[in-house]
Design a protein that fits this description.
Two copies of one chain form a homodimer. Chain A is α/β, with parallel strands linked by helices. Helix content of chain A is 40%, strand content 15%. In chain A, the strands form six sheets. Chain A has a six-stranded parallel β-sheet with strand order 12-11-13-14-16-15, sandwiched between helices. Chain A has a five-stranded parallel β-sheet with strand order 1-4-5-9-8, with helices on both faces. In chain A, strands 18-20-19-21-22 form a five-stranded mixed β-sheet. The model of chain A has no long low-confidence stretch (mean pLDDT 96).
């Protein structure tokens, strides 16, 4: 580790690259699990990018204007762990404080893939700082990088001022053959080309080997030509080990100002090992013997594990470290001055970083008046969304080509759409690309915008891979889904969600809201807007829902507790039966309550807009809302009954969908599938009679 | 309707096309709901294809060698309904008998989008004959068409013999801008190019208008260049109304023998109407006035609705009808002769058509011997799958690049992979394209092969859009998912399914199997193979599962009832507590049962490999397995607890996942997340004590 060891830059480059390869091999070998081949093949490219191009300060890995590096081929995580370790990236705590300790210690590397190591099997955002996005499910990383690049353009346009180029970061994503095959990456690449994201660079690590064998067996398209068709700049590096070629390609990205860039790099999986260019080296350790043989090829001491030659840490410090520190220092000085000149804008930038909202963000929220005819929750939500957006400048959103149907167009700030010529617009046209829409929204959230996107609830299925990542990364993306049930009507079963609500509720860490009327919409939005670490799903109706008269029923504030008593038996007294429901079915429950009252049966209506919130309430509150003594309970929801038993219990009944829907006007569907006051009344009456005999209380 | 009316073919062509347009406008107008614009724009192309090219006999819409027409832009269903009506397609019953009545009557057209009409909002397979695939969720139709085209190649190679070209059908899909944007279509197009499917023709109806506006706002890639990059033949029709150009393009497809063909057709949404080329005409009726104005443009009597001019039915009869009837008659004669020469092959073809299995298909299934160390269910399943495949020649399958991990390679018939040079292979390399893999499998099932495909359970999320269509269409695709839980281990939370089981169980019509040991694997496969109308999901472990000693525990036959008593308390007597579980957790329950027995607590272990089957059993059986009197119940599953309450009840407990998983070796994860015999024992003991006081039975 003596300074004089750093003499010939070429020697140091080679040494640094082989150090990375050695660590990757050793980490996988020690874990007896992992993916050594990809890191070994692409290490020279990742090294060159980090050491010579990336504007990233290891001392502050959350500096807002850092270049982003997304390892889309997340199985190559050992490569990232090596880089985070060797460059000395600092840890960051959950409150966005940079800590003194390293993000990845040598001990972490040695406990790769073991419980609690900061080097898990795949890159995990928020678990290890320096990870810009959770990756592993292929295609997601590149798709998120498109969202990040759009954010970069948006931030630059909103915040940069003459003499203050606060935001000009680039976004790099490293992707393999698998990423290139996934539909979500195709969708996102099309968007990036359309949007002319010249701050975006995908490095395609083409080793042409996947788990089943050579890509010749299934993937023979001309990827370069495909990206040219999308409108990208495409350049090729014929040999991943040729650092000069790699650097020239990265330079060509830097000088391209009108298109995103694809660098197609020909690499060799498991480079240097006896199993080079074979699937064997993809997903298992090389074995002790092959590790030693490979270390000999790389000039590494074959009996030393996790070997870091003298001077390597310093070498990284001199490269990415020094460059990043200087860039950050200059930026911070500039930002200080900027804050004096543009205090309001600086305040916005600062709040965004810690996911705070502006003071007074909810000033425009106001209750909706009672209205028996009512309003579709998509429409009330659209109004509330605009009321919030007016005060939260970085709340931006788009739709997968359904804005007019989902009612999510932001009319604020000119009400325009984000385009190359209009980079400060608040609306994004994602096209008919649900999966990319969700993934790009994740990328926007990772760059600290507050994004939503919208579609029909049925198409949440297309986006699940990305919705799951919102939850796993704990980023507060808002997924807005309208047309939430057989309420879709004539479009029929292909467009009528049934199992989607249950599917989303089953996902850990996701908050699913299905408000019953316009005032619940307001209260649900109030909760959602305040979320800092949890993604939310808003499930909204196409059809009008009556706005309850809150002077007669309980306040919609209860929505914030997930479920609440909307109304007790009109005649007073303890309820004989509980009617539990969400969304459009709450009004149905209210009607049944009246019918039951006429028969002398006391029904309580419980509105349950967010099960996850309700489950978090103290038992006392839950028992107050759903008294354990009342076992006559009817769950009513135009969705799969799956999951309702938790609240309804074995003595209760569930009025729900047990098949797919049908194509017909809603009224016909309601009677076909049994969502009528008479049916609810009948089921409730039968339950009460069963339990109490013919005479009811 | 006089014969002499049919004079000038050009006049009749124009009249037929405008008739279709008129019906589409009227149907949408009458329904006050639907999508008139697309049919009006693309009618000339669909007409030309049907009338002049399609080898399809309306008198037998399930003739095995018919050309397939998939309306991937399913919102244009009125176009298909018009064609099915005008060509006189016959209805087919669920047992594959062609009926005398028409598939689509004039009354059906007039009740478009009403309950029970055979003209629902989107094309629904099995509901209306002549519909080759359920479409509407964009991208699915084109992706299925790739599976159909692969099936066509496979069938030809397996069954055609010198002088008997039994299978040479072509597959056409009509797709819009939305289909082209969806990831699943990109994935499938890449496969089609790689596989050189020259029997596949996509017609791209490029009207460049989507719901949010002109495609300029989000979709400006060069689609033709993209398809060239995939290896397709691409040809352009500059004007959808130029029937000569359309015919020439379709001819060019017919003469292309090495590549799939994309015909890019420039069309005008809402052609002829006042709102032509605007999004207004996409998804709502034109309005009475505009309908009349448009009819004038088309020379249709403006005051007659659903007008079919004299001679039009006969004209279709002379075109597609006569050509189709001749082709089918020739085929049937040929097949008769073929059946004499190759009776075994003919028998296969006939059984496939009605989804029967060969006699003796399960002859090779045999029980696995008891083995405490056991075998991963992916491995036992792989063996059983091969045992079945040996006797079911049209059981074919593939994987989204995970065959070595999912253990689904078929070793039968040479054990090769399907490629242009090997069209009879039983294995398909779908590449890292889960969504297309599932959609293409749907297409293969629609052409009566018996397909499976495999991946990791976590990636079922990527394929949900297509899995749902398996269920909605009621086609028996087998979706095989391994790596079914935190049992994945070191790969960590991105690869560990949690909510996927619940999500799949919530889907109507889908059968989800999670067998506990090798013998349950056999029995589950026995059920799955026999399914004729239901898709199944097999959920299998990566890690070894002990093979229970069936001389000690109950027979695995019980798996066929969905859930069964695997073992009662070792000491005999009624159980104090029920341990309910599936898959890998059943062995855990068995261990806890022993621990509990040592404490004098009698535990029954219930294995529940298929909830859907169990829910269908008579109440008597269900109560026998889960006696209502025993409310101390523990549900144990390495998945979201969502849905378990149904069996466990409010007095029970659920040991499940409440968060995402973590990256670590399985043993560490089992104790971190509480899947240990001690924990199960503790929870069960507490429940029993709570209910019975400290002294237990």
């Amino acid at each position: 580790m003596t300074e004089h060891a750093v003499t010939d830059p070429d020697v140091m480059d080679a040494r640094a690259i082989n150090t990375i390869r050695g660590i990757c091999m050793d980490a996988v070998q020690k874990a007896e699990s992992g993916h050594p081949g990809t890191p070994m093949g692409i290490a020279p490219v990742a090294y060159t990018l980090w050491q010579k191009f990336l504007r990233f300060d290891p001392a502050d890995p959350i500096w807002p204007n850092r270049d982003r590096f997304v390892l889309s081929e997340g199985h190559a995580s050992a490569l990232l762990w090596s880089l985070l370790h060797l460059t000395g990236v600092r840890a960051v705590d959950p409150d966005y404080e940079v800590l003194g300790r390293p993000a990845v210690t040598m001990d972490d590397l040695k406990t790769f893939r073991q419980l609690d190591s900061h080097c898990p099997g795949h890159p995990e955002y928020r678990w290890t700082s320096g990870v810009e996005a959770t990756t592993g499910p292929l295609g997601q990383g590149v798709a998120m990088s498109v969202g990040m690049a759009m954010s970069g353009q948006w931030l630059a346009t909103r915040y940069n001022r003459e003499g203050f180029p606060l935001f000009d970061f680039d976004v790099y994503a490293l992707a393999g053959d698998g990423c290139m095959m996934e539909g979500v990456s195709n969708e996102a690449a099309s968007v990036a080309g359309h949007q002319k994201l010249s701050n975006l660079c995908w490095i395609y690590d083409s080793n042409r080997v996947t788990i089943e064998g050579h890509t010749d067996i299934t993937f023979t398209e001309d990827v370069a030509a495909r990206f040219l068709a999308y409108g990208w700049n495409v350049t090729t590096v014929a040999d991943a080990n040729n650092l000069g070629m790699v650097a020239r390609a990265l330079h060509s990205f830097r000088t391209e100002h009108t298109r995103p860039t694809l660098i197609l790099v020909h690499s060799h999986i498991g480079y240097g090992s006896p199993m080079e260019d074979t699937p064997k080296v993809h997903g298992s350790p090389l074995g002790e013997q092959a590790v030693r043989a490979t270390k000999r090829v790389f000039g590494l001491p074959e009996n030393l594990d996790f070997y870091v030659p003298d001077g390597i840490y310093e070498w990284f410090e001199r490269g990415v470290g020094t460059r990043g520190a200087a860039a950050r220092a200059a930026w911070e000085a500039s930002f200080k001055e900027y804050a004096n000149t543009f205090p309001a804008l600086a305040d916005e930038i600062e709040r965004m970083q810690t996911r705070e909202l502006p003071i007074g963000w909810d000033a425009d929220l106001s209750p909706f008046p009672a209205d028996p005819k009512g309003v579709a929750s998509r429409a009330s939500s659209g109004q509330v969304l605009n009321d919030i957006a007016r005060n939260v400048p970085w709340l931006v959103g788009g739709s997968a080509d359904l804005t007019p149907s989902t009612d999510t167009w932001l009319k604020v700030d000119g009400g325009t759409g984000f385009e190359p010529a209009d980079r400060a617009a608040r609306n994004f046209h994602h096209g008919v690309r649900e999966h990319a829409a969700a993934a790009m929204s994740n990328g926007m959230a990772l760059t600290k915008l507050r994004p939503f996107w919208s579609g029909f609830l049925i198409f949440s299925d297309y986006a699940r891979g990305a919705i799951r990542l919102s939850a796993l990364m704990e980023v507060p993306v808002i997924h807005i889904f309208t047309h939430d049930s057989i309420g879709v009507g004539e479009d029929g079963p292909t467009h009528q969600p049934v199992e989607q609500l249950a599917s989303l509720r089953a996902m850990p860490g996701l908050m699913v809201f299905r408000p019953a009327d316009a005032n619940e919409v307001v209260e649900c939005w109030r909760v959602v807007a305040g979320l800092r670490r949890e993604p939310a799903v808003m499930v909204l109706s196409r059809q009008a829902l009556p706005t309850f008269d809150r002077s007669v029923v309980h306040s919609a504030d209860g929505a914030a507790r997930g479920a609440y008593v909307l109304a007790d038996p009109p005649g007073g007294g303890d309820p004989d039966v509980l009617l539990l429901s969400t969304g459009s079915e709450v009004a149905l429950a209210m009607n049944a309550r009246d019918e039951l009252a006429a028969e002398g049966i006391g029904a309580r209506v419980v509105s349950m807009p967010c099960w996850e919130l309700f489950d978090r309430q103290p038992a006392e509150y839950r028992d107050e809302v759903l008294p354990p003594s009342v076992t006559a309970r009817v769950g009513i929801e135009q969705a799969s009954s799956f999951g309702w038993d938790r609240y309804v219990g074995p003595a209760g009944a569930i009025i729900a969908m047990h098949t797919f829907g049908a194509s017909a006007p809603l009224k016909q569907l309601l009677s076909k599938f049994g969502f009528t006051p008479d049916r609810v009344t009948e089921v409730a009456r039968d339950l009460v009679r069963e339990q109490h005999g013919e005479g009811t209380s």
